[in-house]
Amino acid sequence: MYLPLECKHMDMTQQEYNREIEFIFNRFPSYQTAGKVAYKPGIGTMEALDGMLGYPHRRFRSIHVAGTNGKGSTSHMLAAALQKNYKVGLYTSPHLVDFRERIKVNGEMVPQEFVYGFLMEYKERFVELGASFFEITTALAFAWFAACGVDVAVVECGLGGRLDSTNIITPVLSLITNIGLDHCEHLGFTLEEVAREKAGIIKPGVPVVVSEKGCVQVEEVFRKRAAEAGAPVYFAEEVVEAGEGGEAVAQRCAGGHERGGEKLSGRLYRELLGAEMDLKGVCQEKNIKGICTALGLLAVEFNVEDVAGNICNAAAITGLRGRWETLCSEPLVICDTGHNSHGFKVLGPQISARAVEVAAGNAGSRFHMVFGVVADKDLDSIKDYLPRGAYYYFVKARGSRALPASELAERMLAAGFEGEAVDGEIGGFLRRLVPRDGTEGLAGKGDFIFIGGSTFVVAEAIEYF
Prior knowledge:
This protein is an alpha/beta fold. About 45% of the residues lie in helices and about 15% in strands.
């Protein structure tokens, strides 16, 4: 049976909590820190954990989100929208600073006491079952959502979909954001192969939304899998852009019933176009199409009227960090967790455009890039989309997955980029680049600095600022 709110180990100290968190990070390495050695495909162990806890995921409705990029932002915006009228669980990964960022109810992280009690109660069983870090955190999330009595939980896939630990759920709606080449050693080296893995979250009879249709081959994968499962499939571009000539699409969409004479999905999308959102970035324009389509479908079971304001304030409502986030205004420092070629294809031009904008308003402005990647990313494909007009500081984030700064610098300089390798921790370098004590740093007040390339790099930047 899953732990109740009044769990057995509520009298823990901070030191005891830290010790148990350190234990699961060391004993059960996460993909976030250890990479592919921590990847454990298949849901057999997850099903065993779920049974041990009394099947907590059956105690709440859920929405399942997969995709190469944008699934984190999409999950947070969906949760924010539903939070207007419901108690909403949100499970995402990875975290930036605090492990508990992964598990939230109405924007509040799971309490340390519950985490500690859960680990103390079950860690011996975790060892016996050979559970992975992600399986443990997924079980913890589902137990907490059940204990809190959430009305619905938005559950983000960790990696892929078909063999992901979260795939034990049968949601009321599945959503796939887009398909790109990432984690190819696990998911496949073609877009069709990756799409098949992501399409593994499609369940019999459960509607599925695809935010970005992609190429014809990817579209065909989704259509075929949905047909096999008897699941209605909705491509967001078709739904939200259905105007006077889109009645057939509107009728096909379960959420397409009349609300004020207009289809809810399209009306909400038009309301959000051009609206000021706290989740910035060009990529959000694509994510919003999927979100609006999903909410149109969910309108059959949920009250999703007048949720545009919540979507616009999703980061504040849910506590999401690191998505085109401004960390400092003088000089302007922006970070983003984009970390693969599919993401930088959109992000790169956006960075360059902002640099031009800053330079236009500040004579003598300089453009800096603090950039680091993990070793298993395809740097050759990423660098094609990186700005050429910046001076790069090549850094190595914490953890064994990070590519050494010297190796990164060597490869980037050979490709014609200008910059230098930076030794030591990112926080220490940022103290030299942008001091917080009022002293003069390497960057001037009118400069523009972008920090990214890896979630780990962004996490350390957030810690500093």
